[in-house]
Design goal:
Layout lengths: L1 E6 L5 H14 L4 E6 L3 H5 L8 H10 L1 E4 L13 H8 L4 E7 L13 E7 L9 E3 L5 E3 L5 H17 L4 E6 L7 H13 L6 E6 H10 L6 E4 L1 H14 L7 E5 L4 E5 L16 H13 L3 H16 L10 H5 L6 H10 L34 E11 L5 H14 L1 H4 L1 E8 L2 E4 L11 E8 L8 H13 L3 E11 L2 E2 L8
Parallel strand pairs: 1-2, 1-3, 3-12, 5-10, 8-9, 8-10
Antiparallel strand pairs: 4-5, 4-11, 6-7, 11-12, 13-16, 13-17, 14-15, 14-16, 17-18
Helix pairs in contact: 1-9, 1-12, 5-6, 7-8, 9-10, 10-12
The protein binds nicotinamide-adenine-dinucleotide (NAD).
């Protein structure tokens, strides 16, 4: 028996969860179920995170969460429950299979059968945002080596566990050479440890176009958070099956399984919601907790029911509505239960017998190399809406020349939105009130000290300029740890 935590959710949540639990029970799933309350009613009691302490206790105890969709009330101050749970349990991998079920669910891509493995904790989703000037907002994109190693390794382990042949990585490392460059580099390193699995890298724009056009050429895809967020919705949509799509959030210390759709308040209580997305999430959960036999039985019964014409109104189906052929939620569940033990004849049957759940622990992370680090300069960001680039350049140049002995660095460049505007800027460049002023060690190949940065900021302050932040420029093992020139 495995203890799991279940939340019935809001809207259609209770109906589809009841249907799913009936199917799991009929399939002899070995589960001890703890039910918790989350969502609308909890938010309305004034709990801004939508989840109460007792519920956390259950989640920490079972570490396996089957979650029905919840309704997020509109209004400020409320936190996204999914983000809270994901962050608290360290759920670093979002796994979303996107499979076509043609001809039973209409799609232009009948051969599509892929899985998107999205990094879930980092990238632009770290939530570190700042307003820096009147004109400029900033969001910090954080990509870490341990984060990349965990997600890329998970993708390869997943491919191996489920007999998949290829892992494709999407990044934009032609532009973001350091952040996305690290993701790509780690992908290259780790893929070498899995010679039995093909690997390839795509620049995300052309990769996304290819995914939308020819999804059948992809198998497992791994990518940073933002691209994965967008492309997993695209993939679910073109598979023709948003209502059928499931997702798993996997961490070292817990996992959460859910349908990708919301609580559909428009159809709540009518016994017409499709329980398939949540059921396929439960199949992922069964595999995760080592009940691959039950997962296979349930999944094959569902495939059999679908190919024998069982469908809810959303599965392709104006004609079903008109002909009153669509089944209700309860009837759909009964149809799946009636087929437990059967295998589909037209759709591809699943075979999970050999699927040991992929697991990655931090101890598997590659040994960390501590680089030799040298501080060689600093970027100082200014808020200034009155001065021209030449005026700022002249002020800062004179200042660094006058204090040359103390500062030990010189102004080498000013950029605005990443475009060089000093020296030799173009008059056509549109400038905002946000300037990056790059100071480098005055001596070729030399270094500076933190103390000199403090003196620099102090001197800039004395000039009456408004500095809003600084970024140290370091060289790691002789390789610059900063973008060299102007943006593209
Ligand atoms: P939604 O996914 O709930 O509904 C979109 C459309 O799809 C609706 O017409 C709905 O009737 C239909 N639909 C959704 N699931 C269906 C199913 N299983 N069977 C048949 N039809 C289905 O999206 P929404 O309307 O934008 O959001 C409703 C609420 O759900 C909001 O409060 C939102 O915040 C919340 N939400 C929750 C989650 C979650 O808990 N993971 C995810 C997305 C949205």
């Amino acid at each position: 028996m495995t203890a799991i935590t279940v939340a019935m959710g809001d809207g259609i949540g209770p109906e589809i969860m009841v249907a799913v639990l009936q199917i799991l029970k009929a399939a002899d799933a070995r589960l001890e179920i703890e039910t918790i309350q989350i969502g609308k009613s909890v938010y309305e009691r004034g709990v801004s995170a939508g989840i109460e302490p007792e519920a956390w206790e259950s989640l920490r105890r079972t570490r396996v969460f089957l979650k029905a969709p919840i309704t997020t009330p509109q209004g400020g101050g409320l936190k996204s429950l999914n983000v809270t749970i994901r962050k608290s349990l360290g759920l670093y991998a979002n796994v979303r299979p996107c499979t076509a079920y043609a001809p039973f669910v209409p799609t232009r891509h009948p051969a599509m059968d892929l899985v998107i493995v999205r990094e879930n904790e980092e990238d632009l989703y770290a939530g570190i945002e700042h307003r820096q000037t009147d004109d400029v907002m900033q969001c910090l994109k954080l990509i870490t080596r341990p984060g990349c190693e965990k997600i890329v390794r998970y993708a390869f382990e997943y491919a191996r566990a489920y007999g998949r042949k290829k892992v494709s990585c999407f990044t934009k490392d032609n532009i973001m050479k350091l952040t996305d460059g690290l993701f790509h580099k780690v992908f290259d390193e780790i893929s070498a440890e899995y010679p039995d699995i093909q690997n390839e890298h795509w620049i995300v724009d052309i990769g996304a176009a290819r995914l939308a056009d020819t999804p059948e050429r992809f198998d497992v895809l791994v990518m940073p958070n933002l691209y994965g967020d967008i492309l997993s919705d695209v993939a679910a949509q073109i598979a023709g099956s948003v209502g059928l799509a499931a997702s798993a959030n996997i961490g070292e210390h817990g996992a959460m399984f859910e349908a990708i759709h919301g609580s559909a308040p428009d159809i709540a209580g009518k016994n017409i919601a499709n329980p398939s997305g949540l059921l396929l999430a439960a199949v992922m959960m069964l595999n995760h907790i080592g009940q691959a036999d039950v997962a296979e039985r349930v999944h094959n019964a569902w495939l059999t029911a679908v190919e024998q014409g069982t469908r809810t109104y959303d599965m392709g189906a104006q004609e079903h509505l008109e002909n009153k052929l669509a089944q209700g939620t309860r009837e759909f569940a009964a149809a799946v239960i009636a087929r437990l033990g059967e295998r589909p004849q037209i759709l591809q049957a699943v075979n999970y017998a050999n699927a040991a759940p992929p697991s990655v622990s931090t101890s598997q992370a590659n040994t960390r190399h501590v680089a030799e680090k040298q501080l060689v300069g600093v970027d100082v960001f200014l808020h200034d809406s009155t001065r021209s680039p030449d005026c700022l350049g002249a002020m800062l140049c004179t200042m660094s020349e006058e204090a040359a002995n103390e500062l030990g660095m010189a102004l080498v460049m000013i950029t605005n939105r990443g475009v060089k505007v000093w020296p030799s800027g173009l008059p056509e460049t549109i400038c905002t009130d946000h300037w990056r002023c790059r100071f480098m060690a005055a001596k070729e190949g030399g270094t500076i000290t933190h103390k000199q940065i403090v003196i620099l900021l102090d001197t800039i302050h004395d000039l009456g300029l408004d500095f809003i932040k600084s970024e140290n420029l370091c060289v790691f093992d002789g390789v610059p740890g900063y973008a060299l020139g102007q943006g593209q």
